[in-house]
Amino acid sequence: MSLIQLENISKHYGKYQALEQLNVQLEGGMIGLLGPNGAGKTTLIRVLTGFLQPSQGRASLAGCDLAQPEQLAQLRQQLGYVPQHPAFYPTWTCSEFVDYIAQLKGMHAATERKAAVERSIQYVGLSDHANKATRQLSGGMQRRLGIAQAIVNDPKVLIVDEPTAGLDPEERLRFRHLLAGLGNQRLVIFSTHIVEDIVQTCRQVIMLKKTILYAGGLNELLEQARAAQVSWEITSPTPLYDQQLAIVSSSNDEQGYHYRIVGQPPAGSNAKPASSVGLEEAYLWMMQQASA
Q1: What is the pLDDT of residues 147-181, one digit of tens each?
Q2: Fewest 10 Å CB contacts: which of 9, 50, 142, 165?
Q3: Number of alpha carbons in the 13 Å side-chain half-sphere of residue 46
Q4: Distance between CA atoms of 143 and 175, rounded to whole angstroms?
Q5: How far apart are alpha carbons 215 and 199 in whole angstroms?
Q6: What is the mean pLDDT of residues 43-50?
Q7: For residue 210, is pLDDT > 70?
Q8: d(CA 224, CA 228)
Q9: CB half-sphere exposure, 47, CA atoms < 13 A
Q10: Per residue in 262-273, is it b (16+ CB within 10 Å) or e — as a string?
Q11: What is the separation of C-alpha 24 from the centre of its chain, rounded to a whole number of angstroms?
Q12: pTM here?
């Protein structure tokens, strides 16, 4: 059974089309939801968590039909959600906040709940800060507390919205490690616009720009991009200023300026196919296809 099933999902706000005809069937594990700002990632997450009803179509998650109130209620008992901007009661301690969320999730047995709170706080590396007020935490610590409250009930499904945006490199690495570990045991949907986060953590990817550009295995996507010969290497004696070129990387030395581009190389250039293709290049290729 597919853990994510979307059938003709669309969402519009008046005349604005946020999502258009999404059709996806994917299994569990770590799934990256990748797309530019404004692509509809947060709208899709709100549909998957049941906070937003689609304008049309049918969605199910972990076998629960999200249009059925009883099944949606059942899903929420198995769901962990980390919003892009977690909100905390500033005077509460970390333990108090996670304990409160645990009670909201129906964990009423005090002894079991206390153990679950301690376990989730320890998992995200905040045990030494358990009795510190949430307002005293750094931005990275607050993001980790967001994961602690999401996993306190050991959910079957974890949805995380842009967790690494604005974090320093050390905290981003910590987050990727935390999420990769969680993905071994459950379905994790990791929404981001940072390509490197997907490369390091996910085997499956949904590429979104209001509609589904690709959904499936990461390796299969890279193979498609390689077969389509989307990436080129160019050496030029002078800098390239063509604003239409999708330049992935550039460097220069005594031989000239070296560029790696995605898309059609300029006429008359000495372009040669790149020897490999990464997710960043496949992503740009997909975005070009969508724009065309």
Answers
A1: 999 999 999 999 998 877 777 888 888 888 888 88
A2: 165
A3: 14
A4: 9
A5: 15
A6: 92
A7: yes
A8: 6
A9: 26
A10: bbebeeebebee
A11: 16
A12: 0.87
